[in-house]
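Backbone Fold Data
Goal — fold tokens
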Amino acid sequence: MGYAVAPHHSGVYPVHVQLYEAWKKVWNIRITSTEEYPHLKPARYRRGFIHKNIMVLPRQTCGLFTHTIFYKEYPGGPKELDKSIQGGELFFTVVLNPISIFMTHLSNYGNDRLGLYTFVNLANFVQSWTNLRLQTLPPVQLAHKYFELFPDQKDPLWQNPCDDKRHRDIWSKEKTCDRLPKFLVIGPQKTGTTALYLFLVMHPSILSNSPSPKTFEEVQFFNRNNYHRGIDWYMDFFPVPSNVTTDFLFEKSANYFHSEEAPKRAASLVPKAKIITILIDPSDRAYSWYQHQRSHEDPAALRFSFYEVISAGPRAPSELRALQKRCLVPGWYASHIERWLVYFPPFQLLIIDGQQLRTDPATVMDEVQKFLGVSPHYNYSEALTFDSHKGFWCQLLEEGKTKCLGKSKGRKYPPMDPDSISVQLLPRAQRGTLQAAAQTGTASAILAEAGAAETEIALSESRSISVERSPLLELPGATKRWFKIYLFK
């Protein structure tokens, strides 16, 4: 049959990886079911998912348990069971769910045989009072049919097991939720995220994940297939905090910023996490990524100029269009921030000026500490020193030694050519949104101010980032932060 369930409902969800691996290895289990995903109640929101190539179907409750073995002793009396069957909860469960899976117990088929009584009468009632035609399938075929009907449910959406009492009670007692991050640095790439990472880990109360053998200091959990490894895999990257209240775990993955999936996944697992992003002039970011790819000998970057990359049309070679996407898409700041704000309230988002981080990191880090609410206050003015040879700020160690970013950081590039400077980097739809916001004096299309009902936009002139001078939007935040969005005419 390829179907199994776990004793006491444990291990299926929240996921216990060892159970899935044992099922697959020993019995070649292909299907199981649970009533716990995403939560027991409300039952109408139960969904299925696939994990470790095992299809997990949503299971419904029918009111029969190990102790419900006599008709006259049914909880609430026999009328309660009959009411559920004849137009009540059990009836509507079948009517409202295209596929229903129920679990009964051996004891329900002895004594007064309430298992047979319940489902025979349910089938008769449905046949008499509806036009539904009930069918049954073996477990494997049933699972395939379910995910044909609901393909969007194949990918799971992990949650914090400690946020649901039932989940916490059936989760392994050896596990803890304390190894989940309190904040995320989401990128985008080439804006100074590695420098921010270095500065953050200097703080005595801030702890990062251990490095990944493939992606170095970045876990890249929420945006890639690593997500399907499950939360046990994710939490293994983090230390057990010595003090849950004062220690701040975090991770930095610069690809999260423009990921379609990351905001929703992160909000599901760590809904209270603070989010930090760094923004610089998007044209500078695009050019830096192009030069980064050239330094790594990317064939497309070596073959084509920056102007050819950013001006390529839809009929350009695939490798050129792929490079163009990596250069430009992360710089569509408004679209990506809007996506994150769908899942996180504005007061949980901090936007850092990347240029200020480069020139005045101590002030920025003071702001970061205030945003996080971390203590004790760490004096970055005394802990950082400017290295004139490297051209950026480094950690000051004992005896005057310094710890700086690696050789790959802070490279000197030739200036951007005039043709590239004139190219419009934002998609037409986004340019229109930004320009409309500037003309109407509202920021609702771009960013809701943290904790404020309305946001006023002050327009001022900015340094030239295209052939024409571009207006600069400044949005004063609740803590006097400034968020800048460049408009490309």
Remarks:
- Confidence is low (pLDDT under 50) at residues 428-489.
- The chain has 19 helices and 14 strands.
- The first helix runs from residue 17 to 27.
- The chain has three domains: 7-170, 183-423, 426-489.
